[in-house]
Amino acid sequence: MTGGGLLVAGTTSDAGKSVVTAGICRWLARKGVSVAPFKAQNMSLNSFVTREGAEIGRAQAMQAQAARVEPTALMNPVLLKPGSDRSSQVVLLGRPVGEMSARGFFGGPQGTSQGTSSGEGPAVGHREALLDTVVDCLTELRSSYDAVICEGAGSPAEINLRRTDIVNMGIARAARFPVVVVGDIDRGGVFASFFGTTALLSAADQELVAGYLVNKFRGDVSLLEPGLDMMTRLTGRRTYGVLPYAHGLGIDEEDGLRVSLRGTVRESVVAPPAGEEVLRIAVCAVPLMSNFTDVDALAAEPGVVVRFVDRPEELADADLVVLPGTRGTVRALEWLRERGLADAVARRAAEGRPVLGICGGYQLLGEWIEDEVESRAGTVEGLGLLPLRVRFAVDKTLARPVGTALGEPVEGYEIHHGVADVRGGEAFLTDAAGRPLDGCRSGAVWGTHWHGSLESDSFRRAFLREIAVAAGRRFVPAPDTSFGRLREEQLDRLGDLIEEHADTAGLLRLIESGAPAGLPFVAPGAPR
């Protein structure tokens, strides 16, 4: 039997599609429904490695956790990782298959595909082949699960891209899935967005748009109800719920490019420190920042404050400076030097004040970077704070390593083209036999290619104790903070949002039976 499903679309990017998709997955999983998430095409610098060694968007990995299933490449068959404003690495079924210009990928002349991997697959730039691939993945998921909850991308009313769309109405039409459109009322203009989104779609696409879901509402819902009633009269479609504004959800966001504003703070838990003082962490918001969610586990610790910064003076009172992952290592290095941050980080290291580099940030800390793959800049001098040299390989490393660090078990995942040749320092990451793994330490400077290692609770606490000593802080990590438990609580909150504020009976009918028959066509400019 083929499973049912639903497409969660949005009036805009960041309308709440990822949150709603995860919430529906958790609500269904709690009901005992076998459910899987799906996003045909994702554009994100936050990615994850599945157990079979495939790279997918972190949002889909989070949604799989909400559904209580193991994430696989089937759940995100196409992942675009921007390398500039005009080009992205294309990851197909978990493996990189090339670099492509936006014009080439979205239907211009065959594009400029530049091979960066030996992997083979459907020709990049042939959208028909990609549609076949994503439909095959969705079909396989539907054969294995009772329901598949799809997340769209951007807006389904991006009419310039409709001809080649494989993630919004293109996949809805192929699967005959009903569509619920999510709108962020906190931005304003949600009724115009709902109506305009619907009216810009073709008659065939409109047949699948079942209704709307209001997200991030503050205030008295009764004041909103007249507008919802008017929307039903104008479009013939109902609203399936009004979700309240929820603070501190702490879910994995898709776009690291948005987290570059001065003073941005990430905190999952607001709680006093276990010791006498707080610990302040500054994350350099480098260009093309990837997997900035690595610091979420630090922000989850009571008494730890994490801020994203872009000026050297903002490092002055930080107890730890983090150089995060980046899709543009050489570009990030230039950015650090242009802004004076490179000198500020070097002064910290000379004074014995802690610095941590993760993945691309680890590479920045080395002596030299030899890059003929990502930037094609050749050999570039690094910050020289760790005894390693980095050479970019054509093939990407995708792995789920486990080991020991600071005497504690630790696991993570690796996503990088750079290969580190460590020439000294202390190998603080080791395998079961005590052999060094991918990371090193020199004094107060630490680095590793491992994403997600700070989610290992006992290692995180041991690391923070070391940082507190080096920083001269009377900070003590909380002895019972479990990042995994906190993540589960957050996912349950998403499930609660759906269960308590959405028409779950109506959503279930859509998932099982599809869009209602006879939905009227909405013509542009129809309201008077």
From TrEMBL:
UniProt record, GO biological process: cobalamin biosynthetic process
Keywords, in A-Z order: Cobalamin biosynthesis, Glutamine amidotransferase
Gene Ontology molecular function, alphabetical: ABC-type vitamin B12 transporter activity; catalytic activity
Residue ranges of every copy of the CobB/CobQ-like glutamine amidotransferase domain listed in the record: 280-458
Known pathway: Cofactor biosynthesis; adenosylcobalamin biosynthesis
Catalytic residues as annotated in Swiss-Prot or TrEMBL: 359, 451
Domain CobQ/CobB/MinD/ParA nucleotide binding: 7-255
A UniProt-annotated Pfam family: CbiA
InterPro entries reported for this sequence: Class_I_gatase-like, CobQ/CobB/MinD/ParA_Nub-bd_dom, CobQ_GATase1, CobQ_synth, GATase_3, P-loop_NTPase
Known role: Catalyzes amidations at positions B, D, E, and G on adenosylcobyrinic A,C-diamide. NH(2) groups are provided by glutamine, and one molecule of ATP is hydrogenolyzed for each amidation.
Family, as annotated: Belongs to the CobB/CobQ family. CobQ subfamily.
Name assigned to this protein: Cobyric acid synthase
